[in-house]
Design goal:
alpha/beta; TIM Barrel; globular; 8-stranded parallel β-sheet
Amino acid sequence: MKKSLQDTTTLNNGVEMPWFGLGVFRVDQGPDAVNSVRWAIKHGYRSIDTAAIYGNEEAVGQGIREGLEETGLTREDLFITSKVWNSELAYGDALAAYDASLERLGLDYLDLYLVHWPKPGKYKDGWRALETLYKEKRVKAIGVSNFQIHHLKDVLEDAEIVPMVNQIEYHPYLTQTELHAFCKEQDIQVEAWSPLMAGALLDQPVLQEIADKHNKTIAQVILRWDLQNDVVTIPKSIKEHRIIENADIFDFELSEEEVDRIFDLNQNSRCGADPDNFDF
């Protein structure tokens, strides 16, 4: 389990999702997005995560095409995620947003489509649209992002389909253990965005001490910690050597004590917006 970059977790509908992937949040449309995706595929990544609001789906699509051409892999070998934005959560708008994302990416389907934020009064409509896409077999799996326990309970009250994934901000300063436990109970896979806290943890002394012991980087220790906690993780980088380095985490294991020490760093501290208090 979790012995290589291609290892997968089985979602609650039987779909296999890689434990490790590339995120492209805040990667500009253009060569950076194209190349990071292409390099990731070339170096063994099988999962790419983007979103309509990132404004880089066209470049991601180009990177996917170039990566497949370079490696001889097929579309079915990859796991591609995108997300519907808050302004398009009305039922019909969300269905149209899915088509628009496919068109920009140049794909026939997505492996995972997420409601990006729990926009009050709107996210249940968005979820209904995702259920329709799923029932029509237009998408392999559906889920949510940034949902807290009360948002999930609200959706589950009248959902026909339990979300397969909840993608949340998750790192050693924001461990969200209660939310993670709730998701496990409901068989919802937790996925980490901003696992490295946008670089803010890369000189953290406890993490440095653990990294030195394993002859690894702090980033590698955090990403390994994610996997050992059964959390899918999607670090972002636009540098080829860093894309390779981030994925070099399958040749060591953190001890239980080290895992606990990392949990003890929690400060409930976010680098992104608070899902209970955002205005976009």
